[in-house]
Each structure stands twice: as structure tokens, then as C-alpha cells.
Amino acid sequence: MVTERFICEAILDVRTFMEMGGSILWLILLVAVVLFALIIERFWFVKITCPCLMSAWMEEWNRREDKSSWFARQIRQAMISQANIILYRPIPFIRTLTVISPLLGLLGTVIGMIEVFDVVAGAGTGNPRAVASGVSQAMITTMAGMVVALAGLFFGTWVRQYVKIETERLSNGLREG
Q: N or C: which end of the chain has fewer CB within 10 A?
């Protein structure tokens, strides 16, 4: 009973917050969901799928008798390049979404301020509640865009570093003979 009430209140609070931020805040939420889905997918890939791929590449390399010729070095480089392509594939999307979110927040700020100016132009400065509503929308979208960008920057950098470490680990595992 208490848990259901808490969940209902939380959902209502989130909905109220989203309505206060206007339509741009829903777009920022969509960007955040896609961004964190990509980040979670990449962690999952690097932790679960990637070790199997790395093992297969290292096994294939270790079965080779020739590891020092020019041809063998080209095969090694191709394996490392293939790993780079697979590991780094979604990182440009993560970076793009991280950059887009504060711009969406800024767009929400502009829209909120336009609403403020519309109220001031129509009713004058005598309606502080209407003016405050537009300013509130402007600040909420700015804050949301910045929070998503900061989180995306932090976790995106973390993913990039982890992918870099895995690529170096593969490169070291494929030793030239």
C-alpha cells in the first residue's frame, strides 16, 4: 500500500515536472533515454560479448605458425582494426547526443523566454505568475539539458576509456612472434 502510493506520487511528480518544462523537455527525455540505452548497450557488449570475440581472435592468432612476416603483421593489424570498428561503433552517436542535449535545453530556454515576452506584451508586467511560468520553463529545460549532457559526458568518457583499454588488451594479446 505504501509502495503503491509512493510510486503513484513519484509518477505524478515526474509528469508535473515534464509539463512544466514544455514540449522540449519531452525531447530531452527522449535524447536521454536513447543516450543511456547506447551507453548500457556498450557496457554490456564490452563486458559480455567482447571477451568471446577477443578470445576467438587471440585463438586464431595463436594457431598461426607464422607471426612475424609482413603478411602476418597485416592480418594482426586487420584483427585490431576490426576490433576497433566493432568496439567504437556507437561512440560517435553517444558523443552527438551528449552535445545535442544542452542545445535542446537552450532551445527550451528561448521558447520559455518568448512566452515571457508574449505575456509581458499582452498583459504587461502586472501578471507575475504568467511571467514566472515562462521563466520556470526556460530554467527547467536548461537544467535538464545540462544534466543529460553532464551525465552523457561522464559515462561516454568512461565507455571510451574502457573500449580503449580493451583494444590495447587485444593488441597486446596478439603478439608478433
A: N
Q: Above 80 in pLDDT, residue 172?
A: yes
Q: Give the pTM.
A: 0.79
Q: Among 94, 115, 101, which Cα is nearest to 25's? A: 101
The number of residues in the chain equals 177
**Nearest of 97, 98, 100, 111 to residue 141 by alpha carbon:** 111
117 exposed, middle or buried (CB, 10 Å; 0-12, 13-18, 19+)? exposed
For 160, counting Cβ atoms within 10 Å of its Cβ (0-12 exposed, 13-18 middle, 19+ buried), the class is: middle
* Tens of pLDDT, residues 125-157: 666 776 777 788 888 899 999 999 999 999 989
Name the H helices within 22-127: 23-44, 50-63, 70-88, 91-123
- The pLDDT mean for the chain works out to 85
Q: Is the dihedral of CA 26, 30, 35, 39 positive or negative?
A: positive
39 alpha carbon, distance to own chain's centre: 6
The owner of cell 570475440 is 53
Do residues 107 and 23 lie in contact, with contact meaning Cβ atoms separated by under 8 Å?
no
Pairwise CA distance, residues 121 & 34, whole Å = 39
The Cα–Cα gap between 130 and 112 comes to 11
